[in-house]
Amino acid sequence: MDATATRRALHAIAEYVLAGPQYETSGTIRLRVTEGGIGTVAEPAIRVEGTDAVRGDHRTTLVGSSAAAIAEALGVTARSLADVYKDTCGVPIDEPLTLDIAAADYLAHCFAAGDAALRRFAPTAPPTLWPEHFDLGISVDEVNYGVSPGDSHIDEPYAYVGPWQQQPGDFWNESFGASLRLGATPDVDAIVNFFEAGRHAAAE
């Protein structure tokens, strides 16, 4: 299961095919977790389901295709967000993408578990999937809570708690705050408990 390559490909799709066209049409880059993957929150309504991109009755595979070609197949124009934020996905818009079906399903499961945990932890703060760092998160009382599918710092899915101001204490095991590796089968209860522990540690 090649989760790193699949994560890189999904990050490209999130930026170029979902958030980019949505920003052009609706003025927002916010994305959300959907059944089997991720999707836009406004027009155009596009989502990733497994290793397919879907818009209405149109469905196209992500495997071996480029973000530009996938967008064209869905009737939109792939768009970089380099004019919106600096840390873009770093994938060329015309590069053929490599995805593993099992890895895509696993990452979708991690996002779904994170979404469920965040909604239980803070019911009044809807989670947002941000295309910049490709993570799902919320902010409550100057503390960020979320789930990442992995990045250059931690090369596997993890939950995180990130206070806006650095905090002392044993709970904080990362330079940005604290992390919890999600493992092979993400547990919603464990993620909620981690967020609760983070809230308590940040309040001390």
Topology:
Blueprint: H1 3-26, E1 31-34, E2 37-40, E3 47-49, E4 52-55, E5 58-61, H2 67-73, H3 101-121, E6 128-130, E7 135-140, E8 143-148, E9 158-163, E10 178-181, H4 188-203
Antiparallel strand pairs: 1-2, 2-3, 3-4, 4-5, 6-7, 7-8, 8-9, 9-10
- Compressed to H and E, one letter per element, the order equals HEEEEEHHEEEEEH
What is the count of β-strands?
A: 10
Secondary structure: helix percent: 25-40%
Shape: globular
Mean pLDDT: 96
Major beta sheet, strand line-up? 1-2-3-4-5
Number of domains: 2
Largest sheet: 5 strands, antiparallel
What is the distance, rounded to the nearest whole angstrom, between the alpha carbons of the first and last residues?
Answer: 41 Å
Q: In terms of per-residue confidence, which ranges show pLDDT below 50 for 5 or more consecutive residues?
A: none
Strand content: 15-25%
Number of helices: 4
| CA-based gyration radius | 17 Å
Structural class: alpha+beta
